[in-house]
C-alpha cells in the first residue's frame, strides 16, 4: 500500500519540552549527500511500531517485526510486494524479538519471539520448517536477540534474565538440534549477538551488564571459548563488526564506542553531546542513535536521528578512530525511527518506525521530484534495485 507523503503520521511519544533545531543555516554545506523518500509502505492500519528489520544478503527481500507479526517483502522494480502466506504465516502469540535471513539463500528467514522460540521459514512454500528452542531445563528461555553464522550452520540466541541467569544458546541449523550454551559470561540480559562476517566461529555478545564478550565457538567449554571481555561501563544496545576487525557499540545511553577486536583496545568514544554536535542539532536529549554500517570501501557509517517533532531529522556521519564527519541529510521524515537497513552497494536506506511505515531513501540527484511518485515510475531506482549487493 503506497502512501501520499502529506499524510500526518502520529507518534505516541511525549511532547519534548525542549525545542530542537539546526545549529547551522545551510545544511547542504555540511551534509554533501541529500536523501529523499522515493517510496513509503504502510504495514498496519493499527497503532503499532516496527521494532525489528532484516534484509537478505542480495537485498531482494526484507522482513520486519511489528508487534506479534513478521512481515516479508520482495524488493522489486515497482516497489515492495508483501508475502501473503497461509496458515497464519508470520503470526505469533508473543512479540517479535529478532529477524535474520540465511546468507546464501534469501528464501530462508528466521524470526524469534520473546517466548523463547526461533521460527525458521521457507518463503517458497510459506511453510515453517522448524522451531528452535532450549527447554533443556524444563523451562523456556526468553530470546532477546539471535544471529546466524557466516556458513549458515550455527545459530546463537541471547536470552533475557531468567531466575537470575542469562544464556547464550547454540543450535545446529542443519541437524535441527540444541547444542548447548554459555551461561556464565553475562550477568544481565543479552541485548545483541553478532557472528563475525567472515569467520563462522567468532561471536561477539553484548549485555546490559556493560560487557562485550568475544567467543571462539569451536571450543565446547565456556571458559575456553571466552577469548576476552571489553567493559563499556554502560548498557549495550547494538553491536556491529566492521573492516579490519573493528567493532562498534551503541549504548542505551546513546553513546558510540569503537574497538579494535584484535588488540582489545578502545579506539574512540563519542558521547551523546558530541554526536548531537556532529549532526548539527541543538537538543542532546532528542538525539537517538539508530545503527552502524560499513560504508564505501573502508569506512564506517552511523545513522542518527532527532526525535523532536515526530522524528523529522535523520542524518548520517562517518566515523573513524579520530573523527565524526557529516555525510547525509534525509529530508521529509515524519515518524520516529526504530530500525534501519542499508544497502551499501546501491547507497539505499530503509527506515522503519513508530508510524508503522517502511520508507525507502535514495540520493536526491536522481530521485523523483514528485514526492508522490512510486518506484514503478522511477526508472533510476529500477536500475539500481536490479543489482546485487553484499552488506559486508
Secondary structure layout:
Elements: E1 33-42, E2 50-55, E3 61-66, E4 69-76, E5 79-82, E6 96-101, E7 108-113, E8 118-122, E9 127-132, E10 143-148, E11 154-159, E12 168-172, E13 177-182, E14 190-195, E15 202-207, E16 211-216, H1 222-225, E17 226-231, E18 236-241, E19 246-251, E20 256-260, E21 265-270, H2 272-278, E22 287-295, E23 299-306, H3 308-311, E24 313-319, E25 324-331, E26 337-343, E27 348-353, E28 357-363, H4 379-385
Parallel strand pairs: 1-25
Antiparallel strand pairs: 1-28, 2-3, 3-4, 4-5, 6-7, 7-8, 8-9, 10-11, 11-12, 12-13, 14-15, 15-16, 16-17, 18-19, 19-20, 20-21, 22-23, 23-24, 24-25, 26-27, 27-28
State the helicity in percent bands.
under 10%
Q: Please state the overall shape, judged from the principal axes of the Cα atoms.
A: globular
Helix and strand composition category: mainly beta
Distance between the termini: 31 Å
Protein name: WD repeat-containing protein 89
Region (Disordered): 1-21
Pfam family, one: WD40
Biased composition (Acidic residues): 9-19
Describe the protein's architecture and organization.
The chain has 4 helices and 28 strands. The longest helix has 7 residues, at 272-278. Strands 22-23-24-25-1-28-27-26 form an 8-stranded mixed beta sheet. The chain is mostly beta strands and 392 residues long. The protein starts with 32 loop residues before the first strand and ends in a 7-residue tail after the last helix. 6% of the residues lie in helices and 46% in strands. Residues 9-19 have a biased composition (Acidic residues). Keywords: Repeat, WD repeat. It comes from Clunio marinus.
